[in-house]
Design goal:
Blueprint (H helix, E strand, L loop, with lengths): L1 E12 L2 E14 L14 E7 L6 E6 L1 H19 L6 E5 L3 H13 L5 E5 L3 H9 L1
Parallel strand pairs: 5-6
Antiparallel strand pairs: 1-2, 2-3, 3-4
Length: about 130
């Protein structure tokens, strides 16, 4: 499965909002049947930033880490506003890339966290995350 979306960008300039300064086209490929069999990540993404006037790409970059960081940041924002301010324990289901970025978001948003309890069906991934 491949899906794409165009995300208009905007720039604030002297109190006005000028939209479509650059457009970002993001392409995500869904999981292959057995990505680990080929040494590939579960999913991939490509980000292309295009000048809307000339339609010339100004940036082409791997979007997998951007996507994972966005997911972790969203979890952190939710925790900042929804978690108890003195929370000490965090439970995480899934110890893959997005699990790691969610943990990063949680640690930043809820500084009182002391313990993360991790579950992953893959014991090796769980142990790798616990060592970090």
């Amino acid at each position: 499965m491949v899906r794409g979306r165009t995300i208009p960008r905007g720039v604030r300039e002297k109190g006005s909002y000028r939209s479509r300064e650059y457009s970002r086209y993001q392409i995500h490929s869904g999981p292959t049947l057995e990505p680990s069999k080929y040494g590939l990540p579960r999913a991939s993404a490509l980000i292309i930033i295009v000048d809307p006037e000339t339609l010339i790409p100004s940036c082409v970059m791997d979007g997998a880490i951007v996507s994972a960081m966005r997911t972790g940041a969203a979890a952190g924002v939710a925790a900042k506003y929804l978690a108890n301010g003195d929370s000490k324990i965090f439970g995480l289901v899934g110890a893959s890339v997005q699990g790691r970025t969610q943990l990063m978001g949680m640690k930043k948003a809820v500084p009182s966290l002391e313990t993360c309890r991790v579950y992953d069906i893959n014991k090796k991934r769980r142990k790798n995350l616990q060592r970090r």
